[in-house]
Amino acid sequence: MNRLRRWSSFGLLLGLMLLACRPLLGAPGLLLSSRDTPQPSATATLAAPSLAPTATHQVATPRPTPSAASPSPAPTTDQPTPTAETTPAAEATLSPAALERMARIEQDVEELRGLHATRPVEKVVITREELARKVEEDFLADYTPEDAAKDAVELWLFGLAGRDVDWYEVHKTMLSEGIAGFYDDEEEKMYVVAEDGFPPHARLTYAHEYTHALQDQTWDLDEGLGFNDETCEQDSELCAGMQALVEGDASVTEYLWFWEKATPREQEAIRRYYQSLDMPGWDASPEFMQEDILFPYTAGQDFVLALFKDGGWEAVNAAYDNPPASTEQVLHPERYPDDRPMRVDLPDIGALLGDGWEAVTEHNALGEFWLYLVLAKSETLAYRLDEDEARRAAEGWGGDAYATYYQPEGDGAVLVQKWVWDTSDDADEFTRAFLRYAEQRFGPAQSSGPTLWVWEDTEWGTVFFATVGPRGHVWVIAPDRATAQRLFEATR
Ligand SMILES: [Zn+2]
Question: I need a surface site. Which of 143, 203, 308, 409 has the fewest CB within 10 A?
């Protein structure tokens, strides 16, 4: 099971793109100049000032999407409230002027993106209350209290959160607050949140979501691309790569619409809207979660822009036949598609642990991006490496595998992880960085070096960290030394 990427896959195709665009909307010209009208065949039209790498990773103060606490979506006279039982068609709830504006955005997006709808996209207008209900019924329906408990164990093992966080509540708040509209690729329907007619910020959302509809009609995201729960559970790195492609593409298109097609008045209204947005749930959420949610939009957009600069939309289109296989490829587009993740195997941890243990994650990869989060975004500030050091340490990732287990009837928890690095220099750099991180988190090692470090009686139990050959590492956390030793010996 892929626990760590849970919220990302909840976020599939949701209208969270507004999260990512806000910093850019305040900085006109950062993405591209208004003269750079991209043509589908053009190769260099986005070559104008691109996103500075730092800008895209600055998520310290994102003020993403409409707040649930913002003015209640009381319908105006020409917008009868949709009833809960039957979600009425858009025609029933949006004014003719709004529908006309929508149709023009559809044309604009098709022209900007160079993709064309093969059939009309059904629109469903819902209120924010209905959206909140839909979030619980659709997105959280399969998320059981047991799932939430497992998430809590895994995130605690990685040092990213306390063990008693109620992740169901966190997801519910974030989703209800953070969604501005979404395209449902299973139902093939566009959900538009009716707030006050069809205001400029909703038009921007619509440009993004309509791009998803075009992607789905062109490539079939679920069946064709394979962007679905199964992929995400089996290979969270490929899942993250696909999501970055899909969201990066929609984000770039959305910005193009903003700069090329929105009127100056709309642009101004959209900027004002995001400047005044209040997002208490987002503000209160852990930093690692914010960065994880933003990743497909920010890093994905840089990835798509890199492809676009080289080969225009044709190169972006081609990536749907060969999506990025890892967060490493997304973060370093020059490594796409050749630097494939290396396969790393683990022993059968369940069999080694015996009765009374249950897998949280039986086998998955953490990847470059999540390793960066573990090193730089610990819940406790004192454990954190600074962002640059963490980024450098995670870079050079060749492949990894980890497993986490817990005792449903007790409080035992186990983490086993194994890495392989691109080069021995990358491995050495990680050794140094991890030891600094470990010392901050676990204190001084009881026995240390030259290849094995052990910490006992930490808050998490006994911790082993070892170099394995010139390019590998093993990390084990277990409740006691004997168990840690057994798992370590079997894994090294
Ligand atoms: Zn999206």
Answer: 409
